[in-house]
């Protein structure tokens, strides 16, 4: 079981995440984590679903307009 301590910091509440968990998530101080609501609770992840959606759109455009982009890069 994972345990996170909540502490008051000014007008906010912060969660202390153990080093082992930070290592598993491959994140460090200053990085952003995202909470994704699931049927079973909240999933804490460094994965940004909005950015992933934009990247998928960009990949589609690059595949479709490959030749035009290659010409523009010259």
Major β-sheet annotation: 2 strands, antiparallel
The total of beta strands comes to: 4
Poorly predicted runs of 5 or more residues: none
- Rg over CA atoms, rounded to whole Å, is 19 Å
Helical content stands at: 40-55%
Count of helical regions? 3
Average the pLDDT over all residues and give the rounded result. Answer: 87
Structural class: alpha+beta
Task: Give the tags.
single chain, 74 residues, two-stranded antiparallel ribbon, 3 helices
What would your notes on this structure say?
With 74 residues, the protein is α+β, with helices and mostly antiparallel strands. Strand 3 and strand 4 form a beta hairpin. The chain is 41% helix and 27% strand. The chain has helices at 19-25, 49-64, 66-72, and strands at residues 5-9, 12-16, 34-38, 41-45.
SSE layout:
Elements: E1 5-9, E2 12-16, H1 19-25, E3 34-38, E4 41-45, H2 49-64, H3 66-72
Antiparallel strand pairs: 1-2, 3-4
Write a concise synopsis of the structure shown:
Helix content is 41%, strand content 27%. It is of the alpha+beta class.
